[in-house]
Automatic annotation (TrEMBL):
GO terms for cellular component: cytosol. The lineage of its organism: Eukaryota, Metazoa, Spiralia, Lophotrochozoa, Mollusca. It comes from Mizuhopecten yessoensis (Japanese scallop). This is Uridine phosphorylase 2. Pfam families: PNP_UDP_1 (PF01048). One of its GO terms (molecular function) is uridine phosphorylase activity. Belongs to the PNP/UDP phosphorylase family.
């Protein structure tokens, strides 16, 4: 076995849509989707999920539960008497997952490792459910720190994701080698989402999103437990990133873009900015204002889905 060798993933160009590419799956007696407490023998995944067309990911379980209830209203989803939405992943307390008609609302926690586990299991779920990969769109709706003259509350639609040193791929240590998976997103979908944001009168811009492995030093904050650089170093770094078209910084887009690109699935990342990182590090905006800002990416995605479903 080799250690430390860097290899660019072979899957660089446009991929044929496929939720999974793993011959071992077909040989398994049962596939347990451990972290979402589902499985292809314990559950009839086809019956439960074959009509899924949109999967919406967001960090917080509470926000994704609220988003699901919002979907019930906005999609005019008919609940039978006494029926209420239930967390389909309730057998595990890692993530929450709700299904409202053709839409899944699922929480992914914070950071790439948490999202990556969930993404493998969601992709396998849709595979077992026999959904059609070219008919499914994935969204990440989240929060971020803005760079440059973006007013806090602006939604950034990611044109691409880059890592903390501006490289456009996610690195995964696999079998002793570093494999680089390109983190590309769909520009056509982005253009459609920008138009929808305009119609909804929500301020949105397109730009690169820097995805880091840490909230504090990884994002050049001065307020972590440790900090070995000066305020001038921080500003120089953030301005350099901004001059290379980085509009915002968060912690999952690289994995989201890389894994959806690898599966050939249409996807977009929409994150509201909670502060201007050129002006500060701490997030101290009042709760009610922050709540309204966090609704903005959700409103764009709901409006897009409504249009796709012919509801407007
Ligand atoms: C945005 O917000 C979280 C950190 O506060 C992280 O999950 C992200 O990407
Ligand atoms: N999320 C991040 O990762 N960074 C920020 O600055 C704000 C939200």
């Amino acid at each position: 076995i080799l250690f430390g060798v860097v290899q660019y993933s072979r899957i660089v160009l446009k991929n044929e849509p496929s939720f999974v590419r793993n011959p071992s799956l077909a040989c398994m007696e049962e596939d347990v989707l451990y972290h979402i407490a589902l499985g292809d023998k314990s559950h009839d995944l086809k019956e439960m999920f074959s009509d899924v067309k949109f999967v919406c990911f967001g960090g917080s379980p509470g926000r994704m539960q609220k988003f699901a209830f919002q979907l019930v209203d906005e999609l005019k989803y008919k609940m039978t008497a006494g029926q209420t939405l239930c967390n389909v992943a309730g057998g595990s307390d890692r993530y929450v997952l709700y299904k409202v008609g053709p839409v899944i609302s699922v929480s992914h926690g914070m950071g790439i490792p948490s999202l990556s586990i969930l993404m493998h299991e969601i992709l396998k779920l849709l595979h077992h459910a026999e959904c059609s990969p070219s008919d499914v769109t994935f969204f990440r709706i989240g929060t971020s720190g803005g760079l440059g003259s973006l007013e806090p509350g602006t939604v950034v639609i990611s044109e691409a994701a880059v890592d903390g040193i501006l490289r456009p791929y996610m690195e995964v240590a696999t079998l002793g080698m570093i494999i680089q998976h390109p983190a590309l997103l769909n520009q056509e979908l982005n253009a459609e989402l920008m138009a929808v944001a305009g119609e909804a009168e929500i301020k949105a811009v397109c730009g690169k999103t820097m995805c880091t492995y840490d909230f504090y030093e990884g994002q050049a904050r001065l307020d972590g437990a440790f900090c070995d650089y000066t305020p001038e170093d921080k500003m120089a770094f953030l301005k350099r990133a901004h001059s290379r078209r980085v509009a915002n910084i968060e912690m999952e887009s690289l994995c989201f873009a890389a894994m959806t690109h690898r599966a050939g699935i249409k996807s977009a990342v929409l994150c509201v900015t909670l502060l201007d990182r050129l002006k500060g590090d701490q997030i101290c905006t009042p709760h009610d204002i922050m709540e309204e800002w966090q609704q903005r990416p959700q409103r764009i995605v709901i409006k897009y889905i409504r249009k796709q479903l012919g509801l407007e």
